[in-house]
Amino acid sequence: MHVFTVGYEGCDIDHFTRSLKKQGIELVADLRKNPLSRKKGFSKNRLAAALQERRIDYLHLPDLGVPAEWRKKAKAGEITRARMFHDYARKILPRGQASLERLQELLQTKEVALLCYEADAEDCHRSFVARDLKARAQRGFKIHHLLIPPPARRRIF
To answer: What angle do the packed helices 13-22 and 44-53 form, to 10 degrees?
Structure first.
C-alpha cells in the first residue's frame, strides 16, 4: 500500500490535473483548513470541478489542516515552522483521527494524493499526515511525494 502527496505551488490547474491523471491518482484529499487559494483554479469548488473533469474524486478534510493563525504567526516570524509542525503533530493529528481512519480505508481501494499548497512536502503538514498513515499501516507502506514540474513552454523563435 502507498500514498501520494502533492503541492500545487507553481502549477496551473490544467497541467496539475493532467499530471495527477497521468500518475493514476483517483482521489485528491485536500488537507487545507480553509480550501481557498489566490491561485486561479485551486479554491475548493473550482478544484473539485477540474478534478472531476479528469474523473478524479475530491475530498476536503479540514480537521487535518493547519489553523490560519498558526500560519500567520510562522510567516510573521513569531513562531518557527519547526514549532508549528511540532504543535501540529501534537495537537491537530490526534484530533483528526476520524479523517485519518477514513483515509486509511480509502487507501485500500484508491490511489490517493494528499494535497496542500507547498511544492516541497517536507515544508508542509501533509508529510506528517503521510507518516501517520504509514505508522498505522502494515509493512511495505510507501510514501511518494509527487513533484509536478511546470509545463513545457514552446518557443516560437
So the answer is: 50
